[in-house]
Amino acid sequence: PQRPTRITPLTAWSFVKTSLFGFLSAAAVVSATSEPACEAEAFTMAARSIKKIFPPTSKHWVGDGFHVHPVFANLAFTEAVSPFLMFDYAAPKEFPPTVKRLGVGMHPHRGFETITIALQGEVEHADSMGNTDVIGTGDVQWMTAGRGIVHEEFHSRKFAETGGQFEMCQLWLNLPKKHKMTKPRYQALLSKDIPSVPLVEGDEALENGFVKVYAGEFGGSKGPAHTFTTVNLWNVVLPKSGAERTLPFADGHRVILFVHRGKVQVGENPQDVIEPQGVALLNDAGVNVTLTASEPNTSIIVLSGEPINEPIAARGPFVMNTQAELRQAAEDYMQGKFGK
What we know:
Elements: E1 26-28, H1 39-46, E2 50-54, E3 60-62, E4 66-70, E5 84-95, E6 103-109, E7 112-120, E8 123-127, E9 132-135, E10 140-144, E11 149-155, H2 157-162, E12 164-174, E13 185-189, E14 196-198, E15 210-215, E16 217-218, E17 221-222, E18 231-238, E19 244-248, E20 254-261, E21 264-266, E22 273-274, E23 279-282, E24 288-293, E25 298-305, E26 312-315, E27 318-320, H3 323-334
Antiparallel strand pairs: 1-26, 2-23, 3-4, 4-5, 5-12, 6-11, 7-10, 7-12, 8-9, 8-11, 10-13, 14-15, 15-18, 16-17, 18-25, 19-24, 20-23, 20-25, 21-22, 21-24, 26-27
């Protein structure tokens, strides 16, 4: 398929620093074997391989509260990472106490969902639908922009007053055409409601690794997020260096691995190692991938899902299917039609 125009990854917060039409647009037009002889051969055939490993990207500020790595770099807003669109990671950073509100004020979105994972610290949210909330360490905010919403994101007032370590992720997840104009909604996924599934059966203490299931399913446990497409969003934690664990995936689904702490080898090739803040895009064929921790307390954010396979038209805070729909989104926002 034709390669889309490359743009600098756009974030949920960057709109407030530029005019509504100040962004470049990115559009993409998306365009029987025999039985294996043994179990080892079957496993090899089913194992996924790495398509590409990307090193950590340079950080930039979003507003005055979020110092982020644009994880997908120039693959953001392309079919290569579908159904996901964009991924910002704010590495651990110490913020001193302040009376200022650190973050980004009111800004619009249409056509997709934003997912914010608070790894350390607290994020305060308010939107035009009347939702107000604070998510703390281990919580997740899952906001469906749908037909249009206006919201703000700041460090919580409590966190700002005390200061401390702040670390978070924000992902943009695309909506298929039939759901882009759905009614906006907000889901607060509290840490206590997010299952942690042991990677070794019977390991109740989770000493040999576990998977936090934000969305989708792992080991018979379902995540609390309600999604419009088939998506898995997990945090895989491998406490011991050398620990080897195999994860299952649906054949044909996109799989992306981001190492937010530690280091991990993917598959059997010792050269296929993802460094801290690095990301690996896997080939779509295969039903499992084996991860081996190269350092203790390794943590991987795992994204997987069924590619949407529709045109992607993105400009600033809007993600639609056509340029005409982007123009309509801008017009609707200017006329005050969002959040209704």
